[in-house]
Design a protein that fits this description.
There is one protein chain. The model has no long low-confidence stretch (mean pLDDT 87). This protein is mainly alpha-helical. It has helices at residues 20-31, 34-39, 42-50, 60-83. 11% of the residues are buried. It is built from 4 helices and no strands. Helix 1 packs antiparallel against helix 3 (42-50) and helix 1 (20-31) packs parallel to helix 4.
Length: 84
């Protein structure tokens, strides 16, 4: 394992601590900012939250949509809101 050339998944279980209600609350908070709305498509971010998965967190579709895209977008929105 120590000599394996592939990198491990960074922040491997953080996504298990985020649920749909928290994601929606964050989206509502950042969506109140006009600058965030100019930068992010709030409606497009709401759709995956409405279809929150209950399993298969390692499948390519869920991985890309939730563990990468959605959370990165929410983080970007928090950054824009807090540091604009």
């Amino acid at each position: 394992m120590l000599d394996h050339p592939a990198r491990g998944l960074q922040s491997s279980d953080w996504y298990l601590r985020l649920n749909a209600a928290e994601a929606r609350e964050t989206l509502e908070e950042i969506g109140a900012s006009r600058l965030v709305r100019d930068f992010l498509d709030i409606d497009a971010l709401d759709r995956p939250i409405a279809a929150w998965p209950t399993s298969d967190w390692n499948s390519p579709r869920v991985f890309d949509r939730y563990r990468v895209s959605l959370v990165a977008s929410l983080c970007a929105g928090i950054f824009i809101r807090d540091y604009s």
